[in-house]
Design goal:
Strand content: 15-25%
Mean pLDDT: 82
Number of helices: 9
Helix content: 25-40%
Structural class: alpha/beta
Amino acid sequence: MARKPYDKEIILADLRRTAEKLGCARLTKPLYDTYGTIAPSTAIRHFGGWIKALRAAGMVYAVNDKRERETSHCPKIENTFLKPQRGYGRPVGVASMPYAPTSELGVAVFFGAVAQDLGFAIEHVSESFPDCLAKRRVKEKYERGWEDVAIEFEYRSSKFKAHRHDPAKCDLIVCWLHDWTKCPVEVLELSKLY
């Protein structure tokens, strides 16, 4: 079944609702990706850029003058998100990363630390979908051969769906927690291994 595309008004409403929930006058892509319900890439695609999406939503989009600098913080999360965090996951026993990841970026770094042990060779990492192109050792097929694998990193596998990624363009979701029961993509849940 084909997905129904998002209407521009739905995207604008979600941008405004997220900014209001956080108390932000200037909503960044990372904040929206974390707290919004629609992926920033969807807003960018519909409006031709992140700044254009924010303009359409009536938000501050650049810090150019004193007024904008005074309103560019997010008071509702200032004490938890914008200041340096030192939250650690549980101990996992990996020398180069001794604690479990607590974010998508942490999953990517953790995977990099254990990729070789899991039979992967990372070839390319990107900020766009898919996050990583790698080779996976395949003993069964080619007697120590390799296959190409397009990888998307997520902290929770269900974020893949929330980000509206195309399952046909991804071979493997590498996550810390697998919480998507009918996931159409192969999942490597790192918390089950470490």
